[in-house]
Each structure stands twice: as structure tokens, then as C-alpha cells.
Input
Amino acid sequence: MKLRFLATSSNSGSCPSLYETDNGDIVVQGYQLTDPEALAQLRDVLPDETFVVVPRALMSWFEQKD
Output
């Protein structure tokens, strides 16, 4: 799988960041969600899934592409 860097909301170039795979899927780099109360609210979690917190400002990158 090849990744193409899309965007980051960090001034220093570290996470959080977005990447696109060579098949068009999006990969999210960010801080792992660890808050027990928030984790308890998630539904239909598969054993190999993890959750990442993404700043809303970073998601605006998709709106700019429309």
C-alpha cells in the first residue's frame, strides 16, 4: 500500500495528519482516543479497530477540495 500525504493541522509537521492510499481510502494519524467514557459510547467495535481524535480544523481540508 502506498500513502500520499494530504494535510496536517500541526505547525511543526507532526500529527494529526491525513493520507490517501493508492486505492482512495483515507488514513488518519492522530492521538489515540483513551477516554473511558467516550470509548464506552462507541458501537459495533471490532477487535482490530482503534479510534483516533481528529481536530475539526483538519477535516475542513475535505471541504476545500469540493
The chain has a mean pLDDT of 88. The helical segments are 36-40, 56-65. The CA atoms of residues 1 and 23 lie 8 Å apart.
